[in-house]
Structures are given as structure tokens and as C-alpha cells.
Amino acid sequence: MAAMMMRPDRAILKRQEQEFHYETRVANQLDQFKVEQKGHWENRMMSVIRGNRVKGKVAALQAQQQEQLQERRLRLANKLSDEMKAWQREMVEREETPAQRMERMSAADPEIMFEISLSFVLGHRPPL
Question: What is the pLDDT of residues 31-52, one digit of tens each?
């Protein structure tokens, strides 16, 4: 009698229930996979955005550093030019004219002057 109480489509209904559970699990796994993939994509995009920001900041700092270097080079070139002009003026001011040289030599020791003029006349170098 127990066999008679079972419905004849029981196997079909059980199979349909199993298929429903299987399809639900597959759909849930697919949804979870999509969410995980979207999370991975978002993480990669954040890394790319962060990397681009860092590259931008590095480029800006390098440009600023190059600008400062060019300004420093210009200042140093101007300073060198000014120092060179001052040195040239000093050399011109220090240059001794023949008259100044003769005056200085005449003020020197007369004995040394005699030896220098004698050596000039005789054509050899004076002893030092």
C-alpha cells in the first residue's frame, strides 16, 4: 500500500527541484564571479589612476627642478660675467706704463740700476 500512496510524477518533481537548486547555485556563482571580476577591475583601475597621479607629480617636480637648475645656471653665468669684467678692469688698472716702470726703477737701489743698465749694454742677464 505504501507504493500506492506515491504520486506517479514524484521522480519528475524531484528532478525538477534538483534542477532548480542547480540552476540557482550556477546563477549565484555567476553573480559572485561577476562581482569578483568587477572588484579586480576596480582595483586595477585604482592602481592605474594612482600610478598616473604619481607620474604626474614626478614630472611636475622634475620640471620644477629643471627650472630651478636653469635659473641657478643663469645666476652663476651672470656672476661669472660680472667677476670677469671686474678682473679685466683690475688688470687694466694695474697695468704699468713704461713711464711708471722707469719711475719705479729709478726709485730702486742705484747699485742695482747700474748693474741692470750695464748688463743691458753688455748684452747679458744681470745676476740675481
Answer: 999 999 999 999 999 999 999 9
